[in-house]
Amino acid sequence: MEVREYDRLFIGGEWTAAHSGRVIESIDPATEAVWAEVAEADEHDIDRAVAAARAAMTGPWASMPPAQRGALLLRLAELLRRDADRLAEIESRDNGKPIRDTRGEMLRAADWFTFFAGAADKIRGAEVPVGAQAHAYTRRQPVGVVGAILPWNSPISLASWKLAPALAAGNAVVLKPAELTPVSALELAKLVAEAGFPAGVVNIVPGYGGVAGAALAAHPDVDKITFTGEHRTAQKIMASAAGTLKRISFECGGKSPYLVFADADLDRALTVAVHSAFRSTGQSCSLASRVFVQRPVYEEFATRLAERAARIRVGLPLDPKTHIGPHTSAEQLAKTRSYIDYGRDAGFRLLCGGGRPDGFERGYFIEPTVFADVDNTSRLAQEEVFGPVLSVLPFDTEDDAVAMANDTRYGLVGGLWTSDVARAHRVAARIETGLVSVNTFRPILPALPYGGFKMSGIGRENGLEVLDDYTETKAVYVDLSTMEPADPFRD
Predict the structure, then answer these.
(1) Which secondary-structure segment (H or E) carries 437?
(2) Which domains does the chain carry?
(3) Rg (CA), the chain
(4) For residue range 440-480, what is the model confidence (pLDDT) as tens digits?
(5) What digits encode the pLDDT tens for the residues 308-346?
(6) Strands, E, within 285-343: which ranges?
(7) 251 catalytic residue (yes or no)
(8) Which of 91, 251, 367, 384 is an active site residue?
């Protein structure tokens, strides 16, 4: 099989060789073979990228009218839609996600750029009433140079979550994709160049987290870091960023509760529960990995849920019939297997899955797995598996359900199913997550703020609220008085 070569980084609007001369090998998760080689950025390349971004903040980008920034974002959205099929195939080969999912993600990424294109010329300050003798107001100005560090599970989607608002607000960006999935970000760089963004506004530098990522987090000329990924990495970034008091925003892990009350529409709840637990091979921090079911319907729901999970088609990423593909890496597959072994050893009831699907001698594949009667204090219920492993737990009362849902260090997404409108609002207010959905699960929209409580993160992605994280507020006070100022030192 031919190996694709990406031997350049995208810095300052140009394709340039990496300082190290080394490459990152991208592994096809379905075959375990190298399918692409990407230039590996190191700290020297991060220095160059940050310098290019800093220069862009004093160049044409700095004086560009906001509506023109929006027009560039719209053009990038158009290019993403044009190349959606090609980019989807690349991303499926890079991270193993089914083509039916990655194509949708390309189109949704375009929606993010479209949404924030419309926001670019609507970022404004406000007049501050201080009386007739002065005029006071606020300005919203770009933070400056933004370092964006991506995870490997949804590279283009999460690149759009960070690039679109940062650029709409007038910042320049140095983006580091995950070393496991670097290819699609470089393809995105080609579209950035084609769209006509000024040199240095977007720089894309694949590299290892411990080298390129660490250099970006500590760089004194980076004004803000935005990171999506595991909370232990976020803690290291936070410590590193403290040296220069950088702004930070993190979207980290989750152990999302999904509450099913006895009065719920069980058929609809089942459909959504299965999809929300197993899409992306469970490799998402916002999926419903803990399903709490009220005891009168617990056995029925758990049995039917396992039956549906067993029908999920595990297959090759480029097969349009595939429901879920392989894990992205051998390391992640091993982690998932360790949790399945733990569940068995702990005596939890294995309802389906747990093994390698038939017909796959190679690739990082695992069956969708459902455990029932899981102890909510156990590792299986408390730790993020990041694989297709679902825990089902019974509850008796509303108070029990809320207490169990909140008994975790995470707080990203929660959901509940009920036909009682009062209960829906009551429980939604009590669940300690940044997003709560009722009679559905995890709607992700560019207009809807998204982020976590507790160890699930700091700040928000999406919504107009995210623009606060990419701008500084400056207060301006103009004295209008014609009187001589008082002289406190006159005497």
Answers:
(1) strand 435-438
(2) 4-252+456-476 (3.40.605.10), 257-438 (3.40.309.10)
(3) 24
(4) 988 999 999 999 999 999 999 999 999 999 999 999 999 99
(5) 999 999 999 999 999 999 999 999 999 999 999 999 999
(6) 290-294
(7) yes
(8) 251
